[in-house]
Specification:
This protein has three helices and five strands; from the N terminus they run βββαααββ. It is α+β, with helices and mostly antiparallel strands. The protein has one domain: YlxR-like (Hypothetical Cytosolic Protein, Chain: A), CATH 3.30.1230.10. It is globular and about 60 Å long.
Length: 100
């Protein structure tokens, strides 16, 4: 939305308005109109600058994005699956650290 690039559902964060507040919908199951963002602060910044979130969600005025920004930062702090592999010291084979 913010960067106008497409992505897979698993690569994006869905946001919805609940009681007038913009909140993340990590399970993508909340009722009502939702908008999708990349889990990148730059994408959220662009959406705010373009005022895209109120338009996409069809609500008046600016929205408080603190809860969404916290979710995006939490996702950014999590290591990517590619960062969870290491090389076994003896065999040189890669091991997936996420299964340990």
């Amino acid at each position: 939305m913010g960067c106008r690039e497409q992505g897979g559902r698993s690569d994006l964060v869905r946001v919805v308005v609940v009681d007038g507040l913009l909140v993340p919908d990590p399970r993508a199951r909340a009722a009502g109109r939702g908008a999708w963002l990349h889990p990148d602060p730059v994408c959220l910044d662009l959406a705010e600058r373009r005022r895209a979130l109120p338009r996409a969600l069809r609500v008046p005025g600016p929205l408080d994005t603190r809860a969404v920004r916290d979710e995006i930062e939490r996702r950014a702090a999590r290591p990517a699956p590619s960062e969870l592999t290491t090389v076994h010291p003896r065999s040189g084979a890669e091991q997936d650290m996420s299964t340990r």
